[in-house]
Amino acid sequence: MQLITNPTSGSYSRARVARLAQSLEAEGATVLHCESAGEPRFAATATHVCVVGGDGTVRRVAGAMARQERAVPLSIYPSGTINLLAREAEYPADPRAFARLVLAGRAGRPHYPVALGDGFFFSCAGVGPDSCAVERVSLPLKRWIGRLAYGAAFCQLLWHWSRHTIRLESEGRVLECEAFYVAKGRYYAGAWSLAQSARVHDPLFHVIALPTARRRDYARFVFGLICGRDASRQAGVETFTCRALSATSEAGLPIQADGDIVGRLPVTMNVGEVPLTFC
């Protein structure tokens, strides 16, 4: 088993990684530990890759695996700021329970990643107020207070709220909006859900668009998510499913994917043809 960790992650703990490695070895695995803050290199002898980190680390490692078309099963040990994919798979945080689960030989679960520009994302992406807030997040503050750094960045955004028209095109459909989200899985920013029927094993993604994104529109939308309302049932929200989507805007707005800024509009997104396997 190749254990890939990100030493620059704010929650990185050598002691915790050591406990995980010991637990995996106790269950019969041979562990190769690799620290990587950049493009990971996969060991030729690895028959299983375990990522220790948040969604950004998972996106980087799983994206590299998708580009190399490796058929090695993946697992995610919960760490980092937010762990949407780990939450999706219900991986336990206890090292011994995690080791027993991933080495039990259970059938792998397919995950269809979404190609976005030159990379991939695995849980969610979006353009609008939240991506502008993510762009403002202070990394030192994030290492100190974790996910609260996103709230601090959003509070700053309230004073500099801007609205821009975004044009979405998908399989003959054209829609203009001021903010949109793409959900590949159930979870967004923690326990919230943008699309309650979205699943990582489904070769489709869900698009949630806000035709207008004034402060009150966005507040109403977020309040609905907090209350557990399906976005498709909220007033003033457009939703649909597809396999491909293009988004353009004259403003060149930032794109967030799995909690990180990955580029700016315009962009094209496509569901991958070959799924990765998570165990």
TrEMBL record:
This is DAGKc domain-containing protein. InterPro entries: ATP-NAD_kinase_N, Diacylglycerol_kinase_cat_dom, NAD/diacylglycerol_kinase_sf, YegS/DAGK_C. Coiled coil: none annotated. It comes from the Bacteria. The lineage of its organism: Bacteria, Pseudomonadati, Pseudomonadota, Alphaproteobacteria, Sphingomonadales. Pfam families: DAGK_cat (PF00781), YegS_C (PF19279). Residues 51-119 form the DAGKc domain.
